[in-house]
User: What shape does this take?
Amino acid sequence: MTDFSDRLRRAHTHGRGNPGGPKRELPAHIAAQLASAGRSTDTGGQPWEGRNLGEGTSHTHLYPGDDGRTDPNLEKVLADFIADTVDEVAVVDALRQVRVFAPIVAQLSQAEITADGLVSDKESDMALVSIQAPDGRKALPVFTSVDALTAWHDLARPVAADMRKTALSAIEDDNQLIVVNPGQDVTFVVRRPAVWAIARDQKWVPSYRNSQVAQALSDLVTPLSGVVSVEASPGAGVYSRSATGKVLAGGGPGPELNITLKLIPGLNREQVDRTVGKLREGLAGHRLLSEQVDSVQIALASA
Assistant: This one.
């Protein structure tokens, strides 16, 4: 089983350092920035003294009484989730009610070299960070506390928002997943149907428990020759791992739904392939299944 949080941690630290290797020549703009470190003024000549670099962040002016810590109710639900006393539905439900932090980083859009050979930042943009899930999909990382965010990326600035607005932003930016607390003890992935449910302020029902999904699957396989029945269950990708390696019954990036086709005995390879192909076509063209199911895996069994 792939550990999603471990992939994120490795991706974040990839390429740091070069012990024992040849010394690399620094690019000119990096060397110039290093040369300016420790000066009493910025590269535009403005003094650092007297500035409050923390003032005006979204956290301080949108949530003035917020201490930047994880919501106590969510913290308890996550502890219960680790203890196997609640499921991933409870975690998603708790997330719907809380403030989270999304990381943004400065992205230089225009610069010039000063007379002293230093880089002067003429223009910069603040960019929302996206990461890549193991299956290649775009994902939005969010954090339940400021400390968790800065531990993951010490140069990122926290932008506070309630989870519903965050889900709406994720959808608008074409993120398929929201990854909660990457690199922490529990990295919890909110899969696409749950992201949509949060954005709509609706309760989320996992596809493997959804009666509408079960009925739609039954309707799809009824006309397929050779199929006796169909069963829905949690996919292998539903499960995640804690930092200690404990398997958790939820929070994984997918596949979310395992579809087991029970076939009559004696079908040849061509018949089986044709049956599975027709099922895949039906899944791709079914609106409800496209909305309610994040990703699937198909298993075959004899009746």
Remarks:
- The two ends are 28 Å apart (CA to CA).
- The chain has two domains: 3-7+66-204, 207-302.
- The first strand starts at residue 99 and ends at 113.
